[in-house]
Predict the 3D structure of the following.
Amino acid sequence: MNYTIRPATLADKPVMMMLIENSVRGLSREEYSPEQIEAALKTVFGVDTELINDGTYFVIEASEAREIAACGGWSKKKTLFGGDQFAARVSEELDPRTDAARIRAFFVHPNHARRGLGKMLLEHCEHAVREHGFTALELMGTLPGVKLYREYGFIPSDSILHDAGDGVMIPFVPMRKEI
């Protein structure tokens, strides 16, 4: 199957929301409990419209079907993770001379998993980040994503627990890469 990458649009948002739900429910079951998955979808995982508006969020389409198979992007804003519903967002811009760009919201549909789409997105984002003068990348890795990010050169820090409410704690792994 051939895949192409393009900037995400606001018109893609409903499809991306479904993709994210399918991705999290289908690819996170070995790492997160059903309660953690549903809490993450409700409070953290989702589309960040600011990334679309900034032109830094992308979709990968399966060429034959013209279906969105993956999405992800990067940000020059301080928010490290979380979709539109995430309350702890900070829209202040980062300084490429002193701050690391953010890798954000990578999700792959389970039907397209393990085909190199995450790497394709990372390479695309790293190229764009370099063009904007950044020399480092940071992200908040989900447990299922840590292996991909490590293989791509990200160094993990100690995991953190995110309080998703109702007593549900979700582990994430902060990661960084110098470029």
Observations:
- The radius of gyration is 15 Å.
- The first helix runs from residue 13 to 27.
- The chain has a mean pLDDT of 94.
- The beta strands are 3-7, 57-62, 67-75, 101-108, 136-142, 155-156, 160-163, 169-178.
